[in-house]
Amino acid sequence: METFGDRLHRAMEQRGPLCVGIDPHPGLLTRWGLTDDVDGLERFCRTVVEALGDRVAVVKPQSAFFERFGARGVAVLESTIRQLRDSGSLVLLDVKRGDIGSTVAAYASAYLDPSSPLYVDAVTASPYLGVMSLAPMFELAATHGGGVFVLALTSNPEGAAVQRAVGADGRTVAQAVIDEIAQLNRGAQTLGSFGLVVGATIGDTGHDLSAVRGPLLAPGLGAQGATAADLRTVFGASLPWVLPSYSREVLHAGPDVAALRAAAQRALADCRAALDGS
Ligand SMILES: O=c1ccn([C@@H]2O[C@H](COP(=O)(O)O)[C@@H](O)[C@H]2O)c(=O)[nH]1
């Protein structure tokens, strides 16, 4: 069985290191001339799939923007996931789940069991009930070739107070998360299947990412103010593992399909220039 890390490595080689988020903000639906309802949501997603599904390595639907429409919104998420998989991009569902282990097992079956309607290649997860409370996700991902991206150093300014707090062993909370994920990726050949979320906005925090051997999802580019050049400061020697992620910056170019493609192409070129300059 091919692992998520292997599939991601190949997708990044073939399509370039870029993740584009599907974040149908109410303001974006209006800007695209769509109604802020399930019909608008569906049209928005169909356009993004048509524009980017066959050319971007990873597409990251943000679950919150679907959940806000209830069951019908989740049905759009389901069909968007299916369309993305058919178009060849990997699907990373940004859902940031975390709970006690027995409940995490249910989240794992919801997203990482191939028989689930919401089955995706990888999910984001929150480690704040303890990294190993996420073990059922790690185990199901390993069984079915899925991936899990765990929050480490998030792009929002509020994250630092929790994530950079120092524990009894002298490590920050974030470094403890980083070290646990590095353990899970031990022995990975190309790229491990367990990744971290590290915001492109955070500057040089002195955290050691060198042993992770897994993908480093970098949100915060564009709308949150970080530029591709910031990736060099944040990631240093770990740049080869970085998967830059843009949502609004690219989506603002819609609804024209060619304009969306051009925006994604520009984002990829900027990131390549920053990543390859290492
Ligand atoms: O630290 C994090 C973790 C996740 N996100 C998510 O990424 C996108 C960012 O959207 P932009 O429009 O590119 O700002 C969004 O879905 C966030 O929930 C993050 O920003 N930071």
What does this structure look like?
GO terms for molecular function: orotidine-5'-phosphate decarboxylase activity. Its EC number is 4.1.1.23. The active site is at residue 96. This is Orotidine 5'-phosphate decarboxylase. By secondary structure, the protein is α/β, with parallel strands linked by helices. The chain has a single domain (4-273), classed as TIM Barrel, CATH 3.20.20. The protein has 12 helices and 8 strands. The protein has helices at 4-15, 26-31, 38-52, 64-67, 70-87, 101-112, 135-144, 159-163, 173-184, 230-235, 248-251, 257-276; strands spanning 19-22, 58-61, 90-97, 122-125, 147-153, 194-198, 216-218, 242-246. Strands 1-2-3-4-5-6-7-8 form an 8-stranded parallel beta barrel, surrounded by 7 helices. Helix 6 (101-112) links the parallel strand 3 and strand 4 (122-125). Helix 3 crosses helix 12 (257-276) and helix 6 runs parallel beside helix 7 (135-144). The radius of gyration is 18 Å and the shape is globular. The two termini are 33 Å apart. The relative contact order is 0.15. The model has no long low-confidence stretch (mean pLDDT 98). The structure holds ligand LLZGTKA7. The ligand O=c1ccn([C@@H]2O[C@H](COP(=O)(O)O)[C@@H](O)[C@H]2O)c(=O)[nH]1 binds at residues 21, 23, 62, 94, 154-155, 197, 199, 219-220, 222-224, 246-249.
Present the secondary structure layout:
Layout: H1 4-15, E1 19-22, H2 26-31, H3 38-52, E2 58-61, H4 64-67, H5 70-87, E3 90-97, H6 101-112, E4 122-125, H7 135-144, E5 147-153, H8 159-163, H9 173-184, E6 194-198, E7 216-218, H10 230-235, E8 242-246, H11 248-251, H12 257-276
Parallel strand pairs: 1-2, 1-8, 2-3, 3-4, 4-5, 5-6, 6-7, 7-8
Helix pairs in contact: 3-5, 3-12, 6-7
The protein binds the ligand O=c1ccn([C@@H]2O[C@H](COP(=O)(O)O)[C@@H](O)[C@H]2O)c(=O)[nH]1.
